[in-house]
């Protein structure tokens, strides 16, 4: 084997073709609504971690569980990267008619790209939060919120942070 690229070989690099059963695929007996996605800070240094919070509300008539998923997309990268990458997930039980606020940390190393070694690059990123992958078509209604953040500074090796 001489071609080690992942292009067309894993679901993360398929391009526009969606996987048959994406992460979080399934049905629920209730409905959920996401709101108040907050990224803190919205502008951060290249080695800093990102704090994320989102409110999840069970809008249905039954108690239920939801797998809250966070995906990261590089808007511009110096090397090929996945169209989005799962950076966090959590299964949450929410009683009918109730809501919960969830907090996550997205570590700097989760933004690292491989270019002969792992390195962090400045730029604009989009973070998605929801019960499915961005753009996923499902039978069960679910939504995905998104927000952008900016990383400032010079590119540097991950081990330098």
TrEMBL record:
- E.C. number: 3.2.1.21
Q: Which domain of life is it from?
A: Eukaryota
* The Fibronectin type III-like domain, residue ranges: 66-133
Q: Does the keyword Kinase apply?
A: no
Q: Output the GO biological process annotations, alphabetical, semicolon-separated.
A: carbohydrate metabolic process
InterPro entries found in the cross-reference section = Cellulose_deg_GH3 (IPR050288), Fn3-like (IPR026891), Glyco_hydro_3_C_sf (IPR036881), Ig-like_fold (IPR013783)
One Gene Ontology molecular-function label: beta-glucosidase activity
Please write the reaction equations for the catalytic activity of this protein: Hydrolysis of terminal, non-reducing beta-D-glucosyl residues with release of beta-D-glucose
Q: Does the keyword Transmembrane helix apply?
A: no
Q: Where are the transmembrane segments?
A: none
Pfam families tied to this protein = Fn3-like
Q: What keywords does the record list, in alphabetical order?
A: Hydrolase
For this chain, the family text in UniProt reads: Belongs to the glycosyl hydrolase 3 family.
Protein's UniProt name: beta-glucosidase
State the organism of origin.
Answer: Calonectris borealis
Task: Kindly list the organism's lineage.
Answer: Eukaryota, Metazoa, Chordata, Craniata, Vertebrata
